[in-house]
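Lab notebook, bench 4. The sequencing result for the construct came back, and we need a structural model before the next group meeting so we can plan mutations. Quick request posted to the team channel:

Model the 3D structure of this chain.
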Amino acid sequence: MRSQVVHVFIEIGMQTVLFTSTIFGPIHSRRLGSSLGVNLMPRDGKVCSFDCLYCEAGFNAQGPGKSGLPSRSEVRELLEAKLSDMKAKDEPLDVITFSGNGEPTLHPEFEGVIDDVIELRDKYFPQVRISVLSNATMLHSDSVKRALRRVDNNILKLDSALTPTMRAIDRPGSPSFSSERVIAQLEEFGSDCIVQTMMLRGSHNGVEIDNTLPEEVEALAAAYRRIRPREVMLYSIDRKTPEEHLRKVSRDELEAIAERFRRDGITVQVTG
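Done. Here's the predicted structure in token form:
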């Protein structure tokens, strides 16, 4: 079984942190607890349908590396070895989380991998939740939607309900990807999803970005009312970002924004 290794390299003006294992951790997640990570992307590069300014894995320009995507069978073998070892050592675990070096739902065998992980979870740690952190760009796929409905925490990104701001922050690869489209897709999940929103301000290439402005908050409130998710996870920057001109939103300000959403009956978890 590979040990957990985190490979870090720094370029001028950009920090990149890559997980060089398919299975990594457990690590402490400020939102999820003791989390065993599943990285369905390359171990030596990044593959993502977004190129977020705040992504701790860095910008997509670093390339996909040479290792390729792990196969379904490899993921299963590595995860079973890790869970079996943790079970034998009576180590605590709260959640198995799909995260890592890019967008997990881009993996061509994503639905099958989810089936395997559910089976192994039930065998070794039946009380543990399965979480998927996704940017919601693959919700047009029936296979991806089926898989996401089977996990405990289907966590989907919505960083702004206004398309120009979303595109400035998340920089989707598809020129047609819009907040309007993803909000409609999230509405299909309703209480079967958790919406995760990163609040930040700053600039990129001289252009100011701030999704905490009143019009941004009101647009998000309208989107949350329409989606009616199980919960909203509201958070801000916690680590260095590849765009160094971004600024963290304080915990007090996050709480004030959360209170606006709670007035609409939305359950909000604030971390920051």
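DSSP finds seven helices and 13 strands in the chain.
Will bring this to the meeting.
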